[in-house]
Design a protein that fits this description.
alpha/beta; 2 domains; globular; 10 strands; five-stranded parallel β-sheet; 344 residues; Rossmann fold; 14% strand
């Protein structure tokens, strides 16, 4: 079956237009109103609540908000509310839920509790009529249209883009805002980059590691999840720093490592780790140009670190459909998975 016939392929190719639509109303109006509210009484803490790919988007949001606004961002465990029935004091803080469907019961219950405690509540969702949306004061629509493929692609990219837009507006960061205007065209170009040198090695692999840091940590986590979902290939994600605290003992020539190199100040340390891993005999693949050609993954010229990271996951998505086909897996029908996962 041609990869062009997969729903996942069709949807990942629409990501550039999804991001372009976000430059219009209603998202721009909601962002302006939300940022005005946050500026009137700045929160001391931002609390995120998400599952699956959306949790990786929240990791990206944590980097953005801490990096450009200096506000601590903490992921919330919904079970504290849904199972242990403990109310958290979020009065005056910013609660942000992320969910493609807006139908996860634990996120909805946590949003209701956060709003009742006095938090400013917002959600990023692809269903502005969902129960999660109705539970939050501010609704940030992904504008992604129906996503029929079970593995999320365009909604993940849409979530990252919204988080970057929120940060650029809140921090008045024109460089990030300008990069977002260029992002649709760059995403289209990123979809066409050739990562085929990965496929043969990963097709033979039983397990691998993905690594990122700063803006690419969320990308590494999302890539590891997609390898499980689409190719039934075990993958575990680490930050470049955390990997050196124990997991580095796993390194061998038959254990592939995929590094998503950031294009900001974290690049130097990540590149040094790549060189160290090569000397240890790792089967290493990395974005950027600081490793041997056989392990180099093609990227666009650097533009802005956070949007560069978004382009890296777009290139990965295009590759992983081909990998799944090579492994005989139908990416549109992953084993044991449903499009909407309801947890409490």
């Amino acid at each position: 079956m041609s990869i062009d016939n997969f729903q996942m392929t069709a949807e990942l190719r629409t990501a550039p237009e999804v991001v372009r639509r976000q430059e219009q109303q209603p998202l721009t109006d909601v962002l302006s109103a939300l940022v005005a509210r946050l500026r009137r009484k700045p929160p001391q803490v931002v609390v995120t609540c998400a599952r699956g790919s959306s949790a990786h988007a929240a990791t990206f949001g944590k980097h953005l908000i801490e990096r450009y606004l200096g506000i601590v961002v903490a992921p919330m465990a919904p079970s504290i509310t849904t199972i242990y029935h403990q109310r958290l004091n979020l009065n005056g803080q910013f609660f942000l839920a992320i969910s493609q469907s807006g139908r996860s019961g634990d996120l909805i219950e946590q949003a209701v509790a956060a709003r009742a405690s006095g938090a400013v509540t917002a959600c990023i969702t692809n269903d502005a009529a969902s129960e999660l949306a109705q539970s939050c004061e501010f609704v940030l629509p992904m504008e992604a249209g129906p996503e029929l493929s079970i593995p999320a692609t365009k909604t993940f990219v849409a979530s990252l883009s919204i988080l970057a837009r929120l940060t650029a507006l809140w921090a008045e960061h024109e460089a990030l805002a300008g990069a977002l205007r260029r992002l649709p065209d760059r995403l289209a170009a990123a979809s066409e980059l050739d990562w085929s040198n990965l496929i043969g090695v990963l097709n033979r692999a039983e397990s691998l590691i993905t690594i990122g840091r700063g803006p690419t940590l969320a990308i590494a986590r999302e890539a590891a999840l997609k390898l499980k979902e689409t190719s039934r290939l075990h993958a575990e994600a680490f930050s470049a720093a955390e990997f050196q605290h124990g997991p580095i003992a796993l390194v061998s020539s038959d254990y592939p490592i995929l590094i998503f190199t950031p294009t900001d100040a974290a690049a130097a340390g990540t590149n040094q780790l790549a060189h160290d891993l090569i000397t240890k005999g790792a089967a290493l693949f990395a974005t950027g140009s600081n490793i041997a050609p056989h392990g180099q993954l093609e990227t666009l010229a650097a533009d802005q670190p956070e949007t560069d990271a978004i382009c890296q996951i777009q290139s990965f998505y295009a590759m992983v459909v081909r990998l799944a086909a090579a492994r005989g897996v139908n990416v549109d029908e992953p084993r044991h998975l449903k499009k909407i996962t309801r947890t409490r």
